[in-house]
Design brief:
Length: 246
């Protein structure tokens, strides 16, 4: 992205998605009929998607969406309010995500900024827990923001603690296996109480970041039938609703 717990039963998501793909003769990645895998479909959007036709997205299978709200402690998605409200009006479960810039300010400061500008949560059955998008630095050649693993782990803990203090929920963590294992040193400090949103644009999720026994969300492609990135929830539709309610 950028340019983002109630225990869930473990499912064979990777095998189901791959089976669906092979059954159709190996469709293009963005065209995987993920609904055939039996998992709720979703997507994530930012200012790049601008004015989304939410009713069309719902008719094409969208059951949830994450909307970029903020980045660092200065940027706000100018389309956030209409995207967030529009998805809710169409009957799509929605949540907000923050793109981390741990090189710019503290985790606590960025979490506070995020919650003030869209990263809230309420137990209404329609709002997904807030999410932290932490991945390679898109603005430089320093994938880990020039920070040591221990520093990044402290930053994430600080962000998470502030989000929980302000919303009552731990943030979902969006990341890639490669970034996490390299830049946090494969920290196992978060898997027990933070849902994993794995980014891997492939036909299977592959290896998970250290510390997580299973994933909750899988971003499997950067384009497809829904606006923005394409995602699956690892569970049933009822499970997705329970995840929202907390």
């Amino acid at each position: 992205m950028a340019r983002d717990r109630t225990p869930l039963r473990r499912r064979a998501l990777a095998a189901a998605a791959l089976t669906a793909l092979l059954a159709l003769g190996g469709a293009a990645l963005g065209e995987i009929p993920v609904s055939a895998a039996g998992e709720p479909r979703g997507h994530d959007v930012s200012s790049h998607q601008k004015n989304v036709d939410w009713r069309k997205a719902k008719s094409k299978g969208a059951r949830f969406v994450y909307v970029k709200a903020t980045e660092s402690d200065t940027y706000r998605n100018p389309y956030f309010e209409r995207q967030y409200a529009g998805s809710r009006a169409a009957g799509i479960l929605h949540g907000a995500y923050h793109f981390a810039r741990p090189d710019k300010s503290s985790g606590k400061k960025q979490a506070a900024y995020f919650v003030r500008h869209g990263g809230h949560w309420r137990a209404d059955g329609h709002t997904l827990p807030p999410a932290l998008d932490i991945e390679h630095d898109p603005y430089s050649s320093h994938a880990c923001y020039g920070l040591r693993p221990a520093t990044l782990v402290r930053w994430i803990k600080s962000f998470s603690g502030e989000v929980r203090s302000r919303t009552g929920r731990r943030p979902v963590i969006y990341t890639t296996t490669k970034w996490w294992n390299a830049c946090t040193g494969g920290s196992r400090a978060f898997g027990a109480d933070h849902a994993l949103w794995l980014a891997r644009w492939s036909s299977t999720p592959g290896a998970l970041p250290r510390g997580w026994p299973y994933l909750t969300l899988w971003q499997y492609a950067d384009r497809g039938g829904l606006p923005g990135d394409q995602n699956l929830f690892n569970g049933s539709l009822d499970g997705l609703k329970r995840f929202a309610r907390g």
